[in-house]
Design goal:
heterodimer; A: alpha+beta; 5-stranded mixed β-sheet; B: alpha+beta; 3-stranded antiparallel β-sheet; 12 strands; 45% helix; globular
Chain lengths: 102, 385
């Protein structure tokens, strides 16, 4: 079981737990504002953009090339940006903190 | 080649040039063909504007058949954002359960009807009906209004022999005028009344602005949705193993829908007008000339998609641009995706297989490119599960 914390633009903190699925799905199920996941998780819509908290970066890892290309054109992108549909929930992600970008 | 295949006519030009010029009523268009370039241009609304003369960003240009600016489609930021803020909640209603339930009831009864017939012509006997009825849910008008929409045929601005039919467009404008009049005297919960009561940046919408929003709602989701639904039926008829797989593996349906939308790309391209001299992959773009963002070509870009010309039902990473990209992404995408979800669910439940009987393809011509966008006629027979 992984515990994942989302912090929205309005500074709401939502703590969720799961053991499978994508982080985007987890956020949508828990009504995290700013995570829409319009395309259902195939890296097409960029509506699940998060900034990984500095202390969680090593745990989450880097974006792949296609994901980076998507993020490159997002005005809110920074070096800690990820599309959370591309993050699979697992014990490896336990304790991470994600700031919703929009 | 199978009858439901949609070949990629852009491949050579995309690989070799990246950009290809076509003429359109003496206002040429440089088609941008590679995914990364399409995305970059779509993102750069300052250089590639949507806020040109109304109708000019559409290809073929509608400058000669309308003066009303479609909103928010032909408005750039910052004003664009204010309109989206107003409209997004309305166009996200498809995510609500009661919306989905209404759509399910419509599509379920339509499938039950076509199963009972020996064969149907799918565009007029299925897709046009589905699109028109679903539009009444999107606009929150009585379902009986669908009969009027159905009578207009498959495209609101185009007729069988005329790609730009001013008389036909007038029919839609008259209808919209009448509905706004009715909403003024007797407000309801429909889109017309909602827009009459709405404000953007502290100001009521003008009648012209309301018309612009409604015209977009009709035009943007007409032939696109009809082609998406028709092409999906053709594919499933031609690939019974895919219908079986979707039935057996419901967890792949979301990915399958995005993949079908990528492959069919119901809207081939959309134009922009350059506000300054610019360059796309070393091709000069002159100020006040037109480019088009070719979603259909970008969605077959071999540098991004493995097996771009195959439908890979469970394609995991699928960064397609069938609903556009960035600021002006499709307002109706949630409605379109919900239609596809309900359609696939209901087909899996009710239909064992579909026979592909006969078809007449609808081939668009863009300069040197002949692109199959769908069918003029498609004859199918549905068999109950």
């Amino acid at each position: 079981m992984a515990k994942i914390t989302f912090i929205t633009k309005d500074d709401d903190t939502i703590v969720c737990e799961a053991d499978s699925g994508s982080v985007m799905e987890l956020a949508v199920q828990n009504g995290v504002k700013g995570i829409d996941g319009d395309c259902g998780g195939v890296c097409s819509c960029a509506t699940c953009h998060v900034h990984v908290a500095p202390e969680s970066v090593a745990q989450v890892g880097e974006a792949g090339e296609i994901e980076k290309d998507m993020l490159e054109l997002d005005d809110e992108a920074n070096e800690r940006s990820r599309l959370c549909c591309q993050l699979e929930v697992s014990d490896d992600l336990d304790g991470i903190v994600l700031h919703v970008a929009h | 080649m199978k009858p439901s295949d949609h070949p990629d006519p852009f491949q050579q030009a995309r690989v070799e040039q990246g950009v290809s010029e076509i003429d359109d009523q003496n206002d040429p268009v440089q088609m941008v063909l590679r995914l990364k370039d399409v995305r970059k241009c779509a993102h750069n609304w300052k250089t590639y504007s949507s806020e040109a003369t109304p109708g000019r960003i559409v290809v073929p240009s509608e400058v000669n058949i309308r003066d009303t600016r479609q909103i928010p489609f032909e408005v750039d930021p910052p004003k664009h954002g204010a309109f989206r803020e107003l409209l997004d909640p309305w166009f996200k209603r498809p995510l609500q359960d009661d919306y989905r339930d209404k759509l399910r009831a419509q599509i379920s009864s339509l499938i039950t009807e076509v199963i009972q017939q020996n064969s149907i012509e799918a565009i007029h006997g299925f897709s046009l009906l589905l699109q028109s009825r679903a539009l009444t849910i999107l606009m929150n008008t009585p379902e009986s209004e669908a009969d009027t929409f159905i009578s207009w045929g498959t495209h609101v601005f185009r007729s069988e022999d005329d790609p730009l039919d001013a008389g036909k467009a007038q029919q839609l404008y008259d209808y919209i005028d009448q509905k706004i009049d009715e909403a003024e005297t007797k407000p309801s919960e429909d889109l017309f009344s909602t827009l009459l009561a709405a404000e953007v940046e502290g100001q009521k919408l003008t009648r012209e602005q309301i018309k612009g929003i409604i015209i977009l709602t009709f035009a943007g989701g007409r032939d696109t949705v009809i082609n998406m639904v028709t092409n999906t039926l053709a594919y499933l008829a031609d690939h019974p193993e895919s219908l079986k797989r979707l039935r057996d593996e419901p967890e792949i349906r979301t990915r399958a829908i995005e993949e079908l939308i990528r492959y069919f790309s119901p809207l081939t391209h959309m134009g922009r007008v350059a506000t300054e001299d610019a360059q796309v992959c070393e091709h000069a773009i002159k100020a006040d000339s037109r480019i088009s963002l070719c979603w259909a070509s970008a969605n077959r870009d071999e540098t991004v998609f493995e097996k771009p010309n195959e439908i890979v039902l469970d394609r995991k990473i699928n960064p397609h641009v069938a609903f556009g990209f960035a600021t002006h992404n499709c307002l109706g995408a949630t409605h379109a995706r919900t239609i596809m979800q309900v359609l696939i669910d209901e087909l899996c439940e009710k239909v064992d297989h579909i026979d592909f009987l006969n078809a007449e393809e609808n081939i668009e011509q863009w300069g040197e490119f002949d692109r199959k966008v769908g069918y003029h006629k498609l004859y199918l027979a549905f068999h109950s599960a």
